[in-house]
Amino acid sequence: MQKLNGMRWSLVAWAAVAVGAGIGTLAGAGLIPGGGPTKSDCYAELDVAGIENGTQRVEKNKKVLCTDGEACDKGPCGDGICNMKVAVCRNQTDPSLTDCTPPPGLDQLKVKGLANVQIPQVLEGSACGAFLDVQVSTKKKGTKVGKLSVKVKAKAPKGTKPRTDEDAYQLQCVPRTVACPASPSGAFLD
Known about the structure:
Blueprint: E1 2-4, E2 7-9, H1 12-21, E3 31-32, E4 44-48, E5 58-59, E6 63-67, E7 81-90, E8 105-106, E9 108-112, E10 116-119, E11 123-124, E12 127-128, E13 132-137, E14 146-155, E15 164-174
Parallel strand pairs: 6-15
Antiparallel strand pairs: 1-2, 2-13, 3-4, 4-7, 5-6, 7-12, 7-13, 8-11, 9-10, 9-14, 14-15
């Protein structure tokens, strides 16, 4: 894994290629559009496991709030790190974006965060890439929110209006304020 400013991003290049190749599962109701113009916001979206859009865990369709130890954190409770599973999806028919019609394909899909990945091939159809393992650490010994910025840009073929969807996401790891629940053995997961 690559580490930068206390945050880690792994498998970005592989997953971006998987998105381009159409490998991976289709996303469910948890699609996060990114907060751009709604007419193009379905060209590229994020799917974060354990997070549903339209809840308090997503602000302005682009800020994802994961609390250490909650369903979106796939790691141990109380470790000060949110281990999230994130997939990039393209050309989605998203029921929350009724005025967005995905194009049949994309000319370009770029993902920028800790890595800048450009997918060179033509991107046909609707698909999600494989889930990436993303770690976002809290700050100040688990007392402050940790953040990771991700930018996604999708470009549709010429003649498509609007042609681009540019999204800026922020994945946040919110510190735990209550004790972790007891494990099945009765021990606490601290």
